[in-house]
């Protein structure tokens, strides 16, 4: 079985994001970038499946600017066999990413495509579902457990009500929740080895995909700030404030 | 053109976020039609038709719609969407799962999780865990939108008499199969719509200690929330998670207990009307957004809180 894992380079989850003064976006210069956290779970799961002898090859792919190579290299360092960077500049919407991935799927013919359930930058939560639609494949979204039985995947999904279990036939798309597994760290020797693994660089136009954004970002602004509150010194004072000042209990 | 709202339900009752989604959809365009896809859900069609904002109900029935798989719903939504300018649903796990599949089939760039309708083509949505708000304008002729339920009031559930039109079901997608759903039954209010939420974090130390939270929740008729750390550690199940990758809540009162306040958690609760933080670390970031902060050991504070609440003559329900 061949697994394609899509990863994205995003502002590190620990960085406090700041909005640019001109309202054109958020500050990305000199900011720490990392792989999108649930994409790490997607890679980890693929590697575990390969280690269990159920997959033969893992391809890590990203759609992004030149520097996104780092994110692919990281995936290679934790166990992906080869990488693909589809180079694009500027904002690329989930629909465009899904179209690029569709072309790669047509070419590489993977049995499974894994990716994080959402990217922590645009918080869209769309790409996996869109790719499944374009391919007319099953989709197992928000996965917190995956079991493989021959050509069927049994997936536990985290939903608002609790947990749901579905079975999907391979080929299928799985979008991964942070609770799917515990991503490993890359060891130094593996980071060195990853530098020698093949990484193919393509462009969206090579693939014949129109990635022109359909949404115009008019402006980006800071959300309204909460006013600083007070510290109370006892539980009795807290209850008194909630009852008589805030009037919420 | 008209707007099409996809109803979320479990074939017996309408899920509450559908009411918020109806409000949002009616702000885009007043000619609002609701698409109801299900199995033996005639009563729901009737309830929807009685809502004043709803002008028409399109109702499709089939056995394969019982468990709302996106693979089964999407082709029907696409077929029906021909006559509509906007397709709307909630940005909860139902809408998040379904809408992108619809949008891709319609070749339209979806706008996720909007918190405000600025005009029929322009919307406000949070990005970066709510640390920035983006105003986006869609250039697509057909727009697929998911709405953040807590940013819109629930609609009126009476005063209407919309026509219910039966429509034909689409074919079943045979490659995906529903197996089971494990819903946690609780007598407490639903987390997404509760007036009061009390949430525990890593500071709770184990699942057993959540009984301290439960006792206060019972007293306040509160829903129980949790940080991702608490869910990951297995203290409590996933449907309680509040935050960027969990649920967004906007209660009148949010009590954060033993939660440090990572940005990812704040993303899910910082719009709450009143925020209380109880944490023994006075430097915890949660205090920077709390209206009332109590620097204390939660294992002492929670029993005291219950005791103080017991002294009150009345408590709002």
Describe, in plain words, how this protein is organized in 3D:
The complex is a heterodimer of chains A (249) and B (317). With 249 residues, chain A is α/β, with parallel strands linked by helices. Chain A has one domain: Rossmann fold, CATH 3.40.50. Helices cover 27% and strands 31% of the residues of chain A. Chain A contains 6 helices and 13 strands. In chain A, the strands form 2 sheets. A 9-stranded mixed beta sheet of chain A has the order 9-8-7-10-6-1-4-5-11, with helices on both faces. Chain A is globular. By secondary structure, chain B is an alpha/beta fold. Chain B has 2 domains: 2-167, HUPs (Rossmann fold, 3-Layer(aba) Sandwich); 196-311, Rossmann fold (3-Layer(aba) Sandwich). Chain B has 8 helices and 16 strands. A 7-stranded parallel beta sheet of chain B has the order 5-9-4-1-2-3-10, with helices on both faces. Chain B has a 5-stranded parallel beta sheet with strand order 13-12-14-15-16. In chain B, a hairpin with a 4-residue loop joins β7 (122-127) and β8 (132-138). In chain B, α3 (70-80) packs across α4 (93-105). The radius of gyration of chain B is 21 Å and the shape is elongated. Chains A and B meet through α3, α4, β7, β8 and β9 of A and α3, α4, β5, β7 and β8 of B.
Which helices and strands, and how do they pair?
The complex is a heterodimer of chains A (249) and B (317).
Chain A: E1 2-7, E2 9-11, E3 33-35, H1 37-51, E4 57-64, H2 69-77, E5 82-87, H3 94-108, E6 112-116, H4 127-135, E7 139-149, E8 152-159, E9 162-169, E10 172-176, H5 188-194, E11 199-203, E12 215-221, E13 230-232, H6 235-245
Parallel strand pairs in A: 1-4, 1-6, 4-5, 5-11, 6-10, 7-10
Antiparallel strand pairs in A: 2-3, 7-8, 8-9
Chain B: E1 2-6, H1 17-28, E2 32-38, H2 42-49, E3 54-61, H3 70-80, E4 84-90, H4 93-105, E5 111-114, E6 116-119, E7 122-127, E8 132-138, E9 143-147, E10 163-167, E11 176-183, E12 196-200, H5 210-220, E13 223-226, H6 228-232, E14 253-257, H7 263-266, E15 274-279, E16 292-295, H8 298-311
Parallel strand pairs in B: 1-2, 1-4, 2-3, 3-10, 4-9, 5-9, 12-13, 12-14, 14-15, 15-16
Antiparallel strand pairs in B: 6-7, 7-8
Helix pairs in contact in B: 3-4, 5-8
């Amino acid at each position: 079985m061949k697994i394609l894992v899509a990863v994205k380079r995003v502002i590190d989850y620990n960085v406090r994001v700041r909005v640019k003064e001109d309202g054109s976006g958020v500050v990305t210069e000199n900011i720490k970038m990392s792989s999108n956290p649930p994409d790490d779970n997607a890679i980890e799961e693929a590697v575990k499946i390969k280690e269990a002898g159920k997959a033969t090859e893992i391809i890590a792919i990203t759609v992004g600017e030149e520097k996104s190579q780092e994110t692919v290299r990281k995936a290679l360092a934790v166990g992906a066999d080869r990488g693909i960077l589809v180079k694009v500049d500027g904002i690329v919407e989930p629909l465009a990413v899904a179209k690029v991935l569709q072309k790669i799927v047509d070419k590489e013919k993977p049995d499974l495509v894994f990716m994080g359930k959402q990217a922590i930058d645009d918080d869209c939560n769309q790409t996996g579902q869109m790719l499944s639609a374009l391919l007319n494949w099953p989709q197992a979204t928000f996965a917190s457990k995956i079991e493989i039985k021959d050509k069927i995947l049994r997936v536990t999904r985290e939903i608002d009500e609790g947990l749901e279990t579905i079975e999907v036939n391979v080929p299928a798309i799985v979008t991964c929740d942070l609770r799917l597994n515990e991503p490993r760290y890359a060891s130094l020797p593996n980071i060195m080895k990853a530098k020698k693994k093949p990484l193919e660089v393509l462009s969206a136009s090579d693939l014949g995909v129109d990635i022109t954004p359909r949404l115009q970002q008019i402006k980006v602004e800071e959300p309204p700030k909460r006013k600083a509150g007070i510290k109370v010194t006892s539980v009795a004072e807290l209850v008194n404030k909630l009852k008589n000042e805030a009037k919420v209990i | 053109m008209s707007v099409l709202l996809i109803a979320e339900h479990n074939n017996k009752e309408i899920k509450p976020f559908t009411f918020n989604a109806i409000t949002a959809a009616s702000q885009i365009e007043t000619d609002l039609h609701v698409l109801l896809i299900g199995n033996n859900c005639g009563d729901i069609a009737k309830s929807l038709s009685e809502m004043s904002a709803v002008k028409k109900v399109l109702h499709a029935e089939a056995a394969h719609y019982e468990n709302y798989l996106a693979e089964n719903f999407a082709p029907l939504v696409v077929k029906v969407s021909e006559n509509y300018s906007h397709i709307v649903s909630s940005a909860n796990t139902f809408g998040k799962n379904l809408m992108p599949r619809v949008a891709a089939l319609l070749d339209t760039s979806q706008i996720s999780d909007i918190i405000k309708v600025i005009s029929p083509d322009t919307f406000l949505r949070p990005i970066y865990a709510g640390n920035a708000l983006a105003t986006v304008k869609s250039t697509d002729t057909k727009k697929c939108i998911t709405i953040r339920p807590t940013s819109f009031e629930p609609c009126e559930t009476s005063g209407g008499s919309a026509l219910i039109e039966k429509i034909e079901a689409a074919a079943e997608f045979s490659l995906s199969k529903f197996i089971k759903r494990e819903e946690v039954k609780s007598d407490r209010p639903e987390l997404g719509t509760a007036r009061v939420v009390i949430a525990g974090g890593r500071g709770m130390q184990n699942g057993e200690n959540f009984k301290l939270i439960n006792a206060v929740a019972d007293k306040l008729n509160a829903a129980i929330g949790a940080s991702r750390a608490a869910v990951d550690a297995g203290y409590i199940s996933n449907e309680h998670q509040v935050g960027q990758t969990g649920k967004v809540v906007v209660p009148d009162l949010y009590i954060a207990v033993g939660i440090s306040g990572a940005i990812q958690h704040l993303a899910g609760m910082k719009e709450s009307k009143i925020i209380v933080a109880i944490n023994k670390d006075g430097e915890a970031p949660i205090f920077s957004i709390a209206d009332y902060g109590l620097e204390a050991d939660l294992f002492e504070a929670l029993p005291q809180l219950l005791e103080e609440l017991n002294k009150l003559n009345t408590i709002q329900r």
